[in-house]
Amino acid sequence: MLGKLAAVAAAAYGAPSRDHVVAAPGTQILLPLVAALVQPGRAAVLGPTYAEHIRVAALVGHDAQEVTDVAALKHADLAIVVNPNNPDGRTVGANVLLAIADELRSRGGLLVVDEAFMDVGPAGGSLGGDVARGNIVVLRSFGKFFGLAGLRLGFALAAPEIVSRIDAMLGPWAVAGPAIAIGEIVLADATWVRAMRAQLDQEARRLDELLTNAGLEIVGGTSLFRLVRTRAASELFHHLGRAGIFVRRFSEQRTWLRFGLPNGEDAWARLRESLADAAVCRD
Amino acid sequence: MLGKLAAVAAAAYGAPSRDHVVAAPGTQILLPLVAALVQPGRAAVLGPTYAEHIRVAALVGHDAQEVTDVAALKHADLAIVVNPNNPDGRTVGANVLLAIADELRSRGGLLVVDEAFMDVGPAGGSLGGDVARGNIVVLRSFGKFFGLAGLRLGFALAAPEIVSRIDAMLGPWAVAGPAIAIGEIVLADATWVRAMRAQLDQEARRLDELLTNAGLEIVGGTSLFRLVRTRAASELFHHLGRAGIFVRRFSEQRTWLRFGLPNGEDAWARLRESLADAAVCRD
Which of A106, B4, B207, B227 has the fewest C-beta atoms lying within 10 Å of its C-beta? Predict the structure, then answer.
């Protein structure tokens, strides 16, 4: 039942074949399975990034640490990179990642690349086509780009031996029928994907303009979210929250706020008005 | 987001509180997490039964064996019972299971009761109300009873410490939005549940009549499926398959066939006609 979905996903994500793809009910549930592919050892997560990677690596027994230098990943047993990164949008070049994978391979190490936002990442940035090398697992998220996060559909791209191991843990019927049906249709629709990417780019530029006009400094992001830096982050978080606008804040980076794309003209208007009010408050 | 669903499921399945419930995208994906709650040791699965339990127990490192005597479960580190059982419908009394759980507890052992078919099981048969004892995990499947297996929604009922451990492995967003929404509505609807159970009972009796009239011996089942024994199991499997009717056969019990309830009058007619043809063939 998942064979066709795997084939469509392999084509969409550039994996060598359907045998290099395993579907799951979201990528989150894959994190402990992937982290457990290597014996407990040293896990390095390129940060700051999505906090679940370090939590889960520790949960399955690794000595999990955040590193800020890409080169430090080489010394790990399990190296994890979110690429493009959440929340700052930083990208690491495919050639850099492949070199790290080569070094890790010589010591039995594994490179995990979480490409949850690669749908809006740089062309040629994905390692999906390189997973046959054997010690690379690429995670792809269906829902974020397609506006269907609640559907729970994600994929691991990896060598067939790894795919089989993950598959054995997920067991039969891992993915819901509606997710299979929708995934097969949407992933096969390259025209839709291109149109979606163009639309998101346009909306991200619109958001940048709105945020910049409100006096906020944009320091990163992808076209699915923008990261701003402001000394008034905490006040702005609460101000927006009172208007029903939820932005992400970061306990480790107290001047950061991450803005998602507003959904619909009402939401755009609400954000514009709320930011204007905030500007008045600061004057 | 899953708090309300957990509360509704606790009430529906008789668990002490929402803290004794964790929701998952189907129970299958819970099997390795539950089997890994005890250190690798001896796993005993009351059989013959659903083959995934023994496969998964072995996968996570247990010496997994099938036992046919309930009393043999007492000597395991991990004891697994499907109750009512699939495919034969055998049930083990709650008092018997609780006594086994008590013996296991004294040695740090865990009892897992897969109640995937308890929605159509005997009144008072569930251990959902007993999970606070600490070494009992009850698995409940939403989809089978409600005809929504493809939705992927299942639950583990257990002591809060175990619920937290499973929750940590599943991570946030384990369950799809549609499954949460449908689960909250349907599980809260006791009238619907009673009506569904009565309808399934009626349909099971109708299926019994059809199978008996075709000269098949019914040896077990629940009102979601019936198990028949026939020396012509293999021929009948292929004969029905050619008519587009899929029944389950069993490599270890070659005279068994499991019939699901036909879905709709067309399916009932097709089964009746195909069984009649088979009877003609045998004359």
Answer: A106
